[in-house]
Amino acid sequence: MKTSHKLIFGDSEDMREVEGHSVHLVVTSPPYFNAPFDYPDLFDSYEAYLEKMRKVARELKRVVALGRVVCIVCDDTLIEGRKYPVVADLTKIYIGEGFIYRDKIIWVKPEGYIRISRRSGVILQHPYPMYFYPDNIQETILIFQNGKFDYNSIDKATREGSRIDVTEYQRQKWYLTTWAITNVLPLQNRLERGITAFPDEIAYRLIKLFSHVGETVLDPFMGSGTTNKVARLLQRNSIGYEIDLELMDVVKEKIASVDSGLFEDECDLEIFVRDEAKHMRTQLQEVISNRRSVAKAAKK
Ligand SMILES: C[S@@+](CC[C@H](N)C(=O)[O-])C[C@H]1O[C@@H](n2cnc3c(N)ncnc32)[C@H](O)[C@@H]1O
């Protein structure tokens, strides 16, 4: 099936290119609030971050079709020993904007791939009460719904064409509230270098579970374009918003990577660049690498 993909480089607090109630599913992962090794000092304050998230939620309420679902991969952020309750605050924001809180899935990563700090070591040095700081191997997938879904609104052919493989569903344990999925590994030459991408498998499950073939999936924080790539693979259309112009080539390459070469699998790609789009990655990477050098020097 031929699909179309619209990539907009601009701020998703305003999705003027998207008509009201025209999106059938949202799969996204917002920036991790000022995470020291991903988005250092991107937002002026936690309040400013939450305000941005609220504006995007408000736009999503406008563009998402009635009864349809918004899935948000997110996590609390730890900065200089302080935990910011992003998961709880996003839940409140989405409920406040009129969404129904439908579910919460915990994405569990393999223990061997903890990327940031191993906080649990503290108790090995101080084996006494009050020194416990667990290592984080999870993220949360929040699932909200825009009102009640009309199951009769989908014609029989579309429904059958979107049938879920129950063998895969059972074998991979999609039915649980915990999903064990390997994160994108920090290999040197990966396409997603410098982007906190989620693995294809997350988008794959959510798109299969909450949309039909030929429908439109939106990611307001597109990053490397994982949602768009998997949407194409699963014969859905996609729309993506990304503030950082430097990611354009990565997204194009990622969407092209599922090219089957078959005429019927061709896709239309439209790209729009708005005035507020920025060049961000190189600058962020510089700040991160300076911080790493300072941290290394301090250890010596
Ligand atoms: C966690 S990443 C998304 C990664 C994506 N899920 C993937 O698999 O590659 C969040 C992205 O949101 C982008 N972003 C931050 N603020 C934005 C805004 N206001 N509008 C659009 N994109 C934004 C960041 O540049 C970053 O690429």
Please characterize this protein's 3D structure.
This protein is 31% helix and 22% strand. A 9-stranded mixed beta sheet has the order 8-6-7-3-2-9-10-1-11, with helices on both faces. The chain has 300 residues and is of the alpha/beta class. The protein is built from 9 helices and 11 strands. The chain has helices at 46-63, 86-96, 122-125, 156-161, 166-171, 200-210, 226-233, 248-256, 281-299, and strands spanning 3-9, 23-28, 64-74, 77-79, 82-84, 100-108, 138-145, 178-180, 216-219, 237-242, 267-273. Helix 1 links the parallel strand 2 and strand 3. It has a single domain, classed as Vaccinia Virus protein VP39 (Rossmann fold, 3-Layer(aba) Sandwich), CATH 3.40.50. Bound molecules: S-adenosylmethionine. S-adenosylmethionine (SAM) is lined by residues 11-13, 29-31, 192, 195-198, 221, 223-224, 226, 241-244, 280.
Number of domain modules: 1
CATH topology: Rossmann fold
CATH C-level name: Alpha Beta
What is the distance, rounded to the nearest whole angstrom, between the alpha carbons of the first and last residues? 57 Å
Number of separate helices: 9
CATH superfamily: Vaccinia Virus protein VP39
Helix residue percentage: 25-40%
Alpha-beta classification: alpha/beta
In the predicted model, the low-confidence regions spanning at least 5 consecutive residues are: none
Summarize model confidence as the mean pLDDT.
93
Strand fraction equals 15-25%
Q: Report the biggest beta sheet as strand number plus sense, adding barrel if it closes.
A: 9 strands, mixed
Radius of gyration: 20 Å
Order of helices and strands: EEHEEEHEHEHHEHEHEHEH
Number of strands: 11
Strands ordered across the widest β-sheet: 8-6-7-3-2-9-10-1-11
Chemical compounds bound to the protein: S-adenosylmethionine
Query: Judging by the overall fold, what is the CATH architecture?
Result: 3-Layer(aba) Sandwich
Q: State the shape.
A: globular
